Amino acid sequence: MNDVLLPWHKPYWQQLRQYVSQQRLPQALLITGKPGLGKKHLAQQFAASLLCTQPGENGLACGQCRDCRLVSAATHPDLIHLKRIEDKTSISVDQIRTLIAQTSLKPQFDGYRIILIDPADALNANAANAFLKYLEEPTERTLVVLLTAMPGKLPATITSRCQKLNLATPGRELACAWLKRQQPALDEQAAEKIVYLAKSAPLLALAFASNGVLAIHDDCFQAWLELANQKTHPVMVAEQWQKWADKPILSWFADWLVDLLKCRSKAPAQKLNNPHLYKSLSALSECPLNPRKVYILYDLVLENLRRQHTPINKQLMFEELLIHWARLNDN
Around Cβ 163, how many Cβ atoms within 10 Å? Predict the structure, then answer.
């Protein structure tokens, strides 16, 4: 897929090509968009095209020249990937200092040098300050591409020095059609459910389809319903969910609560985050509910979403949320 332009990337590719054709390549490019839209894929294609000596009419790299072969082998000296070191939560100032030393001279070949920073929001405070100084004194024929799903976490002093490219979420029909082409055995109904779960992010939908996430989601939702009907215990459900802690269960939980409130307000199925759950959620909304408690629980879920990548005890986190959910109708 690396040499194929994803269909929802076409307008952004044209914009990137204009930078080259007009000889207005920015010093730094910030590519943003939620996970699953292919930010890294687009950045890698652009980097390959800039390094390629024989790009095609569409601007994509030829894949055959010396530079393309080096890029494919991840050995091109003028393509630098900066990311978190394994087991680290951030990009350190030492990594930035190494980068500055590495790029103090001209590119080794005659073309550009590309630096990909992914995710850019992983720069810690000291690293961000050091990187800002680097941006203020750019090196020759060098393009820095920063990738992030959370641009708000970057200092304004960095974002203000970047050209910005924000990838929008494609329509559900496009995402569903693309997913079906990648997974021909997937039936239409399952494809639609997965696209809704992925919030129309095609690459995330493909990952969900490949990893059986739809079945996990449905199991989690069923346990959530049973807990609301006092048919199971919060600790038991938390133990089950803990096994799938790498899945976006908190996001699902938040969506279920929002959809529950929508059903209570008699919203139609197509207005829900998960239209295929309308029947179950609509029936649940007919039970006595305290909307204020639902909103309080929703805020608690969002708070945990913000800190889910910190070293918190996931088992205890799930237990707390599920106990609140089980007691939603207590006086």
Answer: 15
Provide DSSP, 96-126.
HHHHHHHTSSPPSSSS-EEEEETTGGGB-HH
Question: What are the two backbone dihedrals, phi and then psi, of residue 166, each rounded to the nearest 5 degrees?
Answer: -100, 115
Return the CATH number of the domain spanning residue range 213-326. Answer: 1.20.272
> Which H or E run contains 143?
strand 142-148
Question: Whole-structure pTM over 0.90, yes or no?
Answer: no
- Please provide the size of the chain in residues: 331
CA distance 56 to 105: 30
- Map residue 31 onto helix, strand or coil: strand
Q: Mean of the pLDDT values across residues 85-93?
A: 87
Whole-angstrom distance, CA of residue 113 vs CA of residue 226: 56
The span from the CA of 78 to the CA of 53, in Å, is 13
Q: Which two tokens stand for residue 23?
A: 């000889």
Helix (H) or strand (E) holding 81: strand 79-82
Per residue in 103-155, pLDDT (tens digit) is: 888 888 888 999 999 999 999 999 999 999 999 887 888 999 999 999 999 99
- Among candidates 143, 140, 139, which has minimal Cα distance to 49? 143
Contact 206, 183 (CB under 8 A): yes
C-beta separation of 9 from 38 below 8 A: yes
CATH H-level superfamily of 7-166: P-loop containing nucleotide triphosphate hydrolases (3.40.50.300)
Token pair 């199991």: residue: 219
- Report the run of H or E that residue 29 belongs to, with start and end: strand 28-32
Question: Rounded to the nearest 10 degrees, what angle do helices 213-228 and 314-326 cross at?
Answer: 40
In 3D, which of 169, 146, 168 has the Cα closest to residue 159? 146
- By DSSP bridging, strand 113-117 and strand 28-32 are unpaired
Alpha helices in 201-290 (DSSP H): 202-210, 213-228, 234-242, 249-264, 278-285
User: Scanning the structure block, which residue is given the tokens 């559900």?
Assistant: 172
Q: Would you give the DSSP letter of residue 85?
A: P
